[in-house]
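Researcher: Let's walk through a ligand-bound prediction step by step. First, I give you the protein sequence. Second, the SMILES string for coenzyme A. Third, you return the three-dimensional complex as structure tokens. Ready?
Model: Ready.
Researcher: Here are steps one and two:
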Amino acid sequence: MITLRPLIYSDAPAIRRIYSGAAVRFLGRPAMTDKEAEEYVVRVQEWAAAEPVEQYILGVDVAGELIGVVKLGRRPNGHGRLGYVLREDCWGRGYATSAVQELVVFAFTSFGLESLGGKHHAENPASGRVLTKAGFTRLGIRDGMIAYHLADRP
Ligand SMILES: CC(C)(COP(=O)(O)OP(=O)(O)OC[C@H]1O[C@@H](n2cnc3c(N)ncnc32)[C@H](O)[C@@H]1OP(=O)(O)O)[C@@H](O)C(=O)NCCC(=O)NCCS
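Model: Step three, the predicted complex:
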């Protein structure tokens, strides 16, 4: 059972663990340093305090342990983009699917979005499977990235 929750400053060590190893391979970035993780949680809290909020980053919590993050960004015309990353040793247990399903409900209700998009590297089929299980439709491939769309809450 997962819970989505706001990040707090003391989450920085868990964030650094999430953004490491195989988890960063398809994110186009190196592993996070301690300092970057601390800056990240500060930045996320600033975004959460903005009026209006344009970007949400929420922690994926399992039994009190932070094992991932999901992201939701507002684009023009009621469209939103989502992203997600889980700590490598927690893969394959359905956590990302549950987190994205919960984020989708939040996006269409509390965040007031009308459609959602997501994309993943063509060599990262597990990510596409997460989007498909959450109700997204595959649009096509461009520049090695596969795009997905969700027009309404499933
Ligand atoms: C992608 C990611 C979030 C998946 O997390 P997860 O918790 O393992 O996902 P889930 O367990 O909910 O679902 C994974 C699905 O992919 C499937 N899968 C795993 N490896 C696969 C592969 N090589 N090919 C096809 N499907 C695969 C699993 O079988 C599962 O599907 P199923 O439930 O039908 O069996 C995780 O691997 C991750 O954080 N990766 C690094 C960051 C990343 O790639 N983020 C997405 C960027 S767009």
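Researcher: And what stands out?
Model: Residues 118 and 148 are 5 Å apart (CA to CA). The pocket of coenzyme A is lined by residues 23, 26-27, 83-86, 91-97, 120, 124-127, 129-130 (CB under 6 Å).
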